[in-house]
């Protein structure tokens, strides 16, 4: 390779990088002066760009040369083509390359372009040849294959009456492209890799004078090479590229491929074409084994039969004349064609953001539907997919029959819904799925309907992940029925062994109730309780947070064991009933539908039959437990739980509970919930009427408090040494140093100073002096609160205001707003009334 080419190659290897002259010189071990001369020459020839002034920066122009002919050169094939460029320039004689991929994806096409590009870049002579051998043509005759490749000497075999040059000789100084290389037998593979190593080979019948050649090799195969090619042979081919299937190519590239084929037909028949949009959409979604090749064939057929039908027509109409048609002529611009389909991507994005807005504004599903239809109106005009009937049938089968939802089918616009599905499928690859905010929002508002929607979507988009944007279909399909589905506030599950037992009971009960009450899982006869349990868990994980609890009906096995398993994954109320029958499931279903209380349903379940057993659990845990609930948030409770779990014996189950929920349960005096609770740990004093010990964790920072907690834990069987370690860790956690460690984004020194100031202002206003413990509690609480607010910024319109009940409280709210003003401005946050009410609870005993 000439030095100037070496210099160019350094830049071409990384076209995104800018190099100084010195960097290039260092990389090649040449003098700066020489390199500078070459760089200037390359610049004058227009091969590289120059920027900056002393030092100059040089950058190779991103010139794809012959590869420009390849659709996707700047898109999905960009990296792959950069690799091909590397193989062309690799000194001294290029680099062998193996192109893999299914049939018809463009392997041969790429191989030829590599050759053309090598010629353009002058790394091979203008006379160099591109020799092709398809090993499949010789599949059953390895002798002939070998002689075709390597040639033979007169007399090598019967009929060899003269010396004959093989393809390898013909490809000397140029390229040999071996297609379907997996068909080469081992002997030929060995011969080839020895040729690649030594640059010489022996024709058949020749063993004295080897032929010396300089050949660049390209290989292609549709197979998985690891199992078929010799390891030694493969090792000799350092670079492999995989060409993607047609359907895996991005939409704009598929559009270009389709148009290019139509343009070619228009050129052949010297006519213009008018192609129905629906036909284009179908072509864009085809997943054919022959990929691009098959698409081209289909287009050829379409054109040929349209032409045959009406040979004098111009333009030729492909499709129905009264549908939306697109004009394609022999000079149509492939790049800009069909861009309007891609223009629906921003429209869909608009639909998504409008849905979010509409949901916040509590708009009805009907209003949301109108908005969606309006924005996508152009799409409905452009296409008229005749798939509404299928969609309806599919929907009735999946949702209507199984989940029994009595739908007023007339309310659903099947035509538009199926057109939206068509659009979703077409633009699917244009959306990444980093933003799951729509689904989260919908899940909060419509947990049960979203569950059904997901079930249904799996049949609409099999093998595809349900991306966030696909939820735009939720409203047209589920908008009108979701209010009814969401009325049910239990998780009810049927589990039965056998192929259809559970699902057939489900279909009967759900449709008699006219609503989705039960989900059902048919379990193979040999499935273990663990497997069953993981099904249940998966289901429960997808359900809303506000359900009352879970009811599970199952067919056989130990009630006790099943109950225990499910209990371990749910801390809500739970009722498990065994020996399920359809009648029993119907009774439970009707009770759920009538919104009966959990206790009533549990009570009724005891009377189902002699063989039936039921177990009802109401409470946090059936194990001895300690409840941790901190008003500074779940994070703090979880940390405390962690400390306790790590230091204590594990005999006590440590359960974290939302602070508000705990207060609610205590206010309700719901003793059953606490029947196994040893004590409650919180960060504030809570008044309570039920006989349960509530410990303010800040008390533990004092000696007497620590002693009290120690006694309680010792009574529960914990060891003194472990308790001491635990208390040590609590003290650390609830110190200023502890607060510092827990702040993730704010500067602890600044925040703590601010919080100290806020505390002082309260003390001054009320003329009080807080004790150490309360102060530390306030410090922790307020600093974490500020950080929380910063992390989850909300608009003022989203905030709920709390009405103060007493004069004292009103006064507290009003001065607090004042005290927090500067913090609010500084961090651009709004302190919610709820937060102030928590601080009030902390301070009210002192003011
Ligand atoms: N990126 C592309 N841009 C434009 N045309 C392409 C592209 N890729 C493939 N084609 C066209 O698709 C057709 C099939 O390509 P090709 O024959 O190269 O596929 P292949 O992978 O070698 O198939 P096989 O494994 O069946 O031999 C050719 O007509 C080719 O010109």
TrEMBL record:
GO terms for cellular component: membrane. Coiled coil: none annotated. Residues 489-617 form the PTS EIIA type-4 domain. Residues 70-304 form the Sigma-54 factor interaction domain. InterPro entries: AAA+_ATPase, P-loop_NTPase, PRD, PRD_sf, PTS_EIIA_man-typ, PTS_EIIA_man-typ_sf, Sigma_54_int, WH-like_DNA-bd_sf. One of its GO terms (biological process) is phosphoenolpyruvate-dependent sugar phosphotransferase system. Keywords: ATP-binding, DNA-binding, Nucleotide-binding, Transferase. This is DNA translocase FtsK. GO terms for molecular function: ATP binding; DNA binding; transferase activity. SUPFAM superfamilies: P-loop containing nucleoside triphosphate hydrolases, PTS system fructose IIA component-like, PTS-regulatory domain, PRD, Winged helix' DNA-binding domain. Residues 746-847 form the PRD domain. Transmembrane segments: none annotated.
């Amino acid at each position: 390779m000439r030095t100037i080419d070496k210099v160019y190659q350094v830049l071409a290897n990384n076209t995104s990088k800018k190099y100084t002259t010195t960097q290039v010189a260092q990389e090649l071990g040449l003098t700066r002066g020489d390199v500078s001369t070459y760089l200037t020459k390359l610049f004058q020839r227009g091969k590289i760009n120059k920027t900056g002034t002393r030092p100059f920066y040089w950058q190779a122009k991103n010139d794809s040369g012959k590869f420009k002919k390849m659709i996707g050169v700047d898109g999905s094939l960009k990296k792959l083509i950069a690799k091909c460029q590397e193989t062309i320039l690799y000194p001294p004689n290029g680099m062998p390359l193996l192109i893999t991929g299914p049939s018809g994806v463009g392997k041969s096409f790429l191989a030829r372009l590599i050759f053309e590009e090598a010629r353009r870049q002058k790394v091979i002579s203008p006379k160099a040849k591109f020799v092709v051998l398809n090993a499949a043509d010789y599949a059953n005759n390895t002798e002939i294959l070998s002689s075709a490749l390597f040639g033979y000497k007169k007399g090598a075999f019967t009929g060899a009456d003269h010396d004959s040059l093989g393809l390898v000789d013909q490809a000397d100084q140029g390229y040999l492209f071996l297609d379907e290389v997996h068909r080469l037998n081992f002997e030929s593979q060995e011969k080839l890799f020895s040729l690649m190593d030594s640059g010489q080979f022996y024709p058949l019948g020749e063993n004295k004078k080897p032929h010396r050649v300089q050949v660049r090799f390209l290989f292609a195969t549709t197979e998985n090479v690891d199992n078929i090619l010799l390891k030694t042979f493969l090792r000799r081919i350092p670079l492999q590229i995989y060409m993607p299937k047609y359907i895996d190519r991005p939409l704009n590239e598929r559009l270009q491929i389709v148009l290019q084929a139509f343009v070619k037909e228009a050129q052949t028949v010297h006519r213009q074409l008018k192609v129905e949009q629906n036909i284009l959409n179908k072509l864009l979604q085809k997943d054919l084994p022959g990929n691009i090749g098959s698409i081209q064939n289909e287009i050829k057929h379409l054109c040929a039969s349209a032409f045959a039908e009406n040979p004098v027509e111009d333009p030729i109409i492909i499709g129905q004349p009264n549908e939306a048609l697109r004009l394609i002529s022999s000079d149509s611009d492939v790049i800009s064609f069909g861009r309007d389909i891609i223009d629906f991507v921003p429209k869909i994005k608009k639909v998504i953001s409008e849905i979010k807005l509409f949901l916040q504004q509590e708009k009805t599903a009907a209003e949301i539907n109108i908005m969606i239809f309006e924005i996508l109106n152009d799409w409905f005009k452009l296409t008229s997919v005749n798939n509404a009937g299928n969609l309806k049938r599919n929907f009735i089968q999946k949702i209507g029959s199984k989940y029994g939802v009595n739908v007023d089918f007339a309310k659903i616009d099947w035509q538009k819904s199926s057109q939206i599905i068509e659009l979703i499928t077409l633009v699917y690859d244009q959306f990444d799925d980093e933003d799951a905010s729509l689904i989260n929002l919908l899940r909060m508002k419509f947990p049960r309907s979203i569950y059904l929607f997901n079930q249904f979507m799996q049949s609409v988009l099999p093998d595809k992940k349900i991306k966030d944007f696909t939820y735009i279909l939720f409203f047209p399909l589920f908008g009108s029925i979701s209010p009814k589905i969401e009325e049910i506030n239990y998780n009810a599950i049927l589990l039965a062994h056998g192929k259809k037992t559970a699902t057939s009971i489900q279909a009967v009960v759900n449709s008699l109730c006219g609503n989705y009450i039960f989900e059902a899982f048919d379990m193979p006869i040999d499935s273990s309780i663990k497997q069953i349990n993981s099904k249940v868990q998966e289901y429960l994980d997808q359900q809303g947070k506000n359900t009352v609890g879970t009811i599970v009906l199952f067919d056989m096995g130990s009630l006790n064991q099943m109950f225990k398993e499910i209990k371990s994954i749910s801390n809500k109320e739970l009722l498990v009933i065994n020996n399920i029958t359809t009648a029993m499931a119907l009774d439970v279903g009707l009770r759920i539908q009538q919104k009966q209380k959990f206790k009533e349903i549990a009570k009724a379940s005891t009377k189902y039959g002699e063989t039936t057993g039921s177990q009802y659990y109401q409470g946090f845990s059936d194990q001895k437990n300690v409840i941790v609930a901190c008003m500074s948030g779940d994070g703090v409770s979880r940390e405390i739980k962690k400390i306790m779990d790590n230091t204590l014996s594990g005999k006590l189950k440590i359960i974290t509970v939302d602070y508000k929920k705990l207060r609610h349960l205590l206010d309700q005096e719901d003793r059953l919930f606490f029947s196994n609770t040893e004590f409650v740990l919180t960060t504030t004093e809570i008044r309570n009427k039920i006989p349960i010990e509530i410990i303010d964790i800040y008390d533990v920072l004092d000696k007497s408090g620590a002693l009290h907690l120690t006694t309680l834990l010792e009574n529960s069987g914990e060891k003194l040494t472990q308790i001491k370690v635990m208390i040590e860790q609590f003290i650390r956690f609830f110190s200023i140093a502890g607060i510092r460690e827990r702040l993730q984004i704010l500067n602890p020194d600044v925040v703590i100073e601010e919080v100290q100031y806020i505390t002082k202002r309260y003390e001054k206003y009320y003329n009080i002096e807080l004790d150490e413990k309360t102060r530390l509690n306030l410090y922790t609480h307020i600093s974490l609160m500020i950080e929380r607010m910063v992390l989850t910024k909300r608009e003022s319109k989203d905030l709920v205001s709390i009405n103060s009940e007493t004069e004292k409280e009103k006064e507290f709210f009003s001065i607090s707003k004042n005290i927090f003003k500067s913090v609010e401005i500084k961090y651009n946050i709004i302190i919610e009334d709820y937060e102030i009410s928590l601080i009030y609870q902390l301070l009210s005993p002192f003011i």
